[in-house]
Design a protein that fits this description.
With 444 residues, this protein is of the alpha/beta class. The protein has 15 helices and 13 strands. Strands 6, 7, 8, 9, 10, 11, 12 and 13 form an 8-stranded mixed beta sheet that branches. Strands 3-2-1-4-5 form a 5-stranded mixed beta sheet. The N and C termini lie far apart (51 Å).
């Protein structure tokens, strides 16, 4: 019997695996004439296909549920701008061996491509490594030269000509290997940090995020964590953090209903209790104040530390998440092996793997008191912001600008959770304390 196109079906994941090498050829190799001849919309589609394939290979499953063309994406951005009052744009940053490939889409626009042949991959990797090494230490401004170069390379080609005229205030950055772990908020134009100009979100691919918008409404918070560990550094501010974020939500003004919260600390923070609470009711936010690491290799190497065991990234999808109600997953004390492609895939794919709409996590091991300060500011702004990305931006700006409430919070940390000296407003303004926190997947 002969097969016909109507009877032969190929599983989507297998089809993506077969097409991925072709997508790489079309998108990655600048020396071939063929990519230049493709329509812009097809170039974007091929790029998205390859990025999706990276995550599907890493997690071993089909992840994409929608396939939007570049025109669809531009229309989606326009719709979201109308719904939120915030004007978003998508920026793809793709390092190639001999140049940096950039693609920008703004609402109702065609893709705008820029190829920077003075920024080969080796130079980009060296500059990114210097930036991360200096900014992940709360000492001085040695990160600034690299922060300015990276801003010039990634944002500079578009800012004056396209971003400013379009009124863009929200950037969705889709990065490839080597740039997924970049602390975007701390890029600098010589006068301002990037977070002073835009709300920022790191996305795995535009076709891998939820583009439905719902205003942030009072709901249910599950806050859990540990301050003591057998073989890891203690996190003495965690009890204060859990109580404070719940208080920030509960005391937010609401005409209809108030936030409800449930918390688990130390010995109660077990996998069984965690999964039981998830199964009993739906939560809008799950906050985990505990160590977590995104390590090189397969997803099972990366983990979140519970009281009794490690929950691997591979196992996260097995939890009884009440989806699609879960809007936000927060990991307030994690770090990732920046510069390793698989570790960065795990970090960037955190929300994707859990199936949640958005996640917040940190790129490096931020100080206990600094985390307490940032998270308190973030939860203060969640019920007062149009989007999650804007809530995180406002929290980061409060630390950057030395908000007095932050100093009071560090005093609270000193008196109730730690014997270390309190952090001053000047200390907390260093990007070490705020720039490592990233919003992942959906800004809405």
């Amino acid at each position: 019997m002969l097969f016909s196109p109507h009877t032969l079906t190929i599983p989507r994941r297998i089809l993506r695996w077969l097409l991925a090498p072709l997508a790489c050829l079309l998108v990655v190799a600048p020396t071939y004439a063929m990519p230049q001849e493709l329509p812009l919309s097809q170039q974007v589609a091929n790029m998205e296909l390859r990025l999706e394939s990276d995550y599907e290979t890493y997690f071993g499953e089909d992840l994409a549920e929608v396939t939007q063309t570049s025109e669809d994406m531009a229309n989606t951005l326009a719709r979201l701008a109308e719904e939120t009052g915030k004007t978003p744009a998508i920026l793809w940053t793709i390092p190639r061996e001999d140049h940096l490939h950039l693609v920008l889409i703004t609402p109702n626009s065609e893709p705008i491509i820029r190829d920077l042949y003075d920024v080969p991959k080796e130079l980009l990797e060296k500059t990114t490594e210097q930036f991360h090494r200096h900014i992940s230490r709360p000492s001085n401004n040695a990160y600034m030269p690299a922060a300015r170069k990276l801003h010039d390379w990634l944002i500079g080609p578009y800012e004056d000509e396209f971003l400013k005229p379009a009124g863009i205030d929200t950037l969705l950055v889709c990065a490839d290997d080597g740039l997924r772990g970049l602390a975007l908020a701390a890029l600098h134009d010589g006068e301002r940090f990037l977070v002073e100009k835009y709300s920022l979100t790191s996305i795995p691919a535009f076709n891998l995020i939820d583009t439905d918008y719902e205003p942030i409404e009072p709901g249910n918070l599950l806050a859990m964590g540990a301050s003591e560990f057998t073989d890891l550094a203690p996190l003495p501010a965690v009890p204060v953090e859990l109580s404070n974020i719940a208080w920030q939500l509960r005391t937010a003004e609401s005409r209809d209903r108030n936030w409800q919260d449930r918390s688990l600390l130390n010995q109660s923070f077990t996998l069984q209790n965690f999964n039981t609470l998830l199964g009993r009711q739906s939560y809008d936010i799950v906050h985990l104040a505990t160590h977590a690491e995104f390590k090189p290799g397969r997803p099972e190497n990366s983990y979140i530390q519970l009281w009794d065991q490690r929950l691997t990234l591979e196992e996260m999808s097995n939890l009884d998440w009440q989806l699609p109600n879960l809007e936000l997953l927060v990991l307030s004390a994690c770090e990732t092996a920046v510069g390793d492609s698989t570790a960065e895939l795990g970090f960037a794919g955190l929300a994707l793997r859990a199936g949640v709409k958005s996640a917040v996590a940190s790129l490096w091991d931020v100080s206990d008191a600094g985390t307490l300060a940032l998270m308190s500011e973030f939860y203060y702004h969640i019920p007062r912001s149009v989007t999650k990305a804007e809530a995180l931006r406002q929290a980061q700006l409060n630390l950057l600008q030395g908000n007095p409430e932050t100093v009071a919070l560090s005093q609270l940390q000193k008196s109730s959770a730690s014997a270390s000296p309190p952090l001053t407003a000047d200390a907390l303004s260093h990007p070490f304390y705020w720039a490592g926190f990233s919003l992942l997947r959906s800004p809405w």
